[in-house]
Amino acid sequence: MKKKILWFVIMISTPLCCIAQDWHVGATAGISNYSGDLSEKRVDFGYTRPMIGLFVKKDINRYLTLRAGGTFGMVAANDRTNASIALQSRNLSFSSPIWEGHLGAELNFFDIDEKGFTPYLFGGVALFSFYPTAKDSLGNKIRLRRLSTEGQGLPQYPERGNQYSLYQVSIPFGAGFKYLFTDRLTLGFEIGLRATFTDYLDDVSTTYVDQNTLLAERGQLAVDYAYRGDEPGTKGIPGTYPLDGTQRGSAKNKDWYTFTGLTIMYRLGGGSDGRRSTNFSKCFKM
C-alpha cells in the first residue's frame, strides 16, 4: 500500500518537477529603430532610441522554446538628415513610443545544456500601440493623429477612411544567440524586426490634401504640420504648401520597427545542478 501511495505521489509530482526546470524569466535592454516614409535609408541609426523589456520562456524540448513578453521602445526620424533635397524641403519629423506585447517561438540550433550556447531563430505575433508626435519651435509635443494631416476622417476625402488606429498588429521575427553563463543564468543577444500593417507609424503615407479644406476642418495647426517646408531654418529649398494630391509619402510599403538588445534570463526550479530534466530519474534523485 505504501509503495502504491509513493508511486502515486511521484507520478503527480513528476510533471511539476520537470516543468519548473523548463521555465525562464528575463529582461532585455538595447536600442529601437524605425523604417518608413521619413527614413531615406532602410534604417537610420542616427535616430536610434532606447528599448527595454521583460519576458518569460518555456522550453518545450531541446530545440523548441515558447516565449511571451512586453517591450517598450521609442522610434523617431527627421527629414533634415535625409540626403534628398526634396525630402529636406518637406521638413517633416516625428517620434513615437512603442508599447508591445508579443507571443512567439524560438527554434534553437543546439541543446544549450550540452553545448553551453546556441544560436536561434524566432517568430511570432505582437500587438503594439503608438502615437506619433512632432515638436514645435519651443519644444512642445504636437500630437499628429488628431490633426488629420492627410485628410483622415474628413468628409471631403472619404477614400482616406477614418483616423488610423493607434493599436496595431505586427509580425516579430529575427535571430539571436544564447550563452549558458551559469546553471541558472543565460546571457544573450537578439535582433528582432517587426513588420507592421500600418503606414502611419510616422503619420505619413499618401498625398497632401487641400490646404483650405484642412484649415476649415482642423485649423491652422493641422496645416502647419501637414507641410513644414516653409518653416524658418528649413534645409533644401523653402517652398509653399503643395497642391491637393501632391505626393507626401508612399503607401506602397508599410512601416517597420526593430528591437535589438542584450538579454539576461533566469531558469526557475531545477535539481541540484539547476538544469533541465527530461526524464523521470533526473527529476527525482532516488
TrEMBL record:
Residues 1-20 form the signal peptide. InterPro entries: DUF6089, OMP/PagP_B-barrel. This is Outer membrane protein beta-barrel domain-containing protein. Residues 3-130 form the DUF6089 domain. Keywords: Signal. The keyword Signal applies.
